[in-house]
Each structure stands twice: as structure tokens, then as C-alpha cells.
Here is the input.
Amino acid sequence: MSQNIDVERELNELRARVRRTPAPTSDADLTALQKAIANLNANWYISATLPPPAPNAPLTWRAVYFVKRVVRRVMVELLNTLVQQQNAFNLQVAKALTELATQEERIAELESRIAKLEKERIA
Here is the structure.
């Protein structure tokens, strides 16, 4: 239960940081790193549950779904443990890449300030 609370807290912090970041006007304004981070943040969570088949799904798909459900129920503890570990890892990677992008922006800003100061010193 405490892990769920930590995940919720982390998600809320991440959402707050995303809200503070100004949205680019288009996809063309994003760098490759920003696009990768946006994709990662949108897809970091995985689920151990299977979506049920559509009502008009073929009989073979329903049979496959039934077999997968039986296998997953047998392996539920192992599977849930692995999914939780993978989600924790994915969250940490998403946070690290977001921080990397923030540092990249800060370094670019500092480099421009240094160039400006050097230009003023020379002039």
C-alpha cells in the first residue's frame, strides 16, 4: 500500500512539473529528447491485466483470451511482482530523463549567458 502512495505522490509531482513547463506551439518545436520524454511519460505505466475481447471477436480470440486468463491466474504473484518492478523502473527512467532535459535547458541558458558576457567583455 505504501508503494501506491509513493507512486501517486511521484505522479502528482511529475504532473505539477509538466504544468509549469510551457507547452510548445507545435511538434516541430520539440527537440528529439523532448519528444522521447513526452512519449516515455505517456507510456511508462504497464498493466498486468488483459482487456476483454470485443463482443464480436472471433472464437479463436476468445479461446486465446481464456487460456491467457487461466495462465495469468496461476502466475499472478510472479507476474504482479514483475509488473510492479517494471513500473517502478519505468517511473525512475521517466523522472531521470525529465531531469536531464531540465538540466540540458539550464546548460543552454548558461552557455548563452557566458557567450553574452564574453561578448560584452571584448566590446
Observations:
- The chain has one domain: 2-122.
- The mean pLDDT is 80.
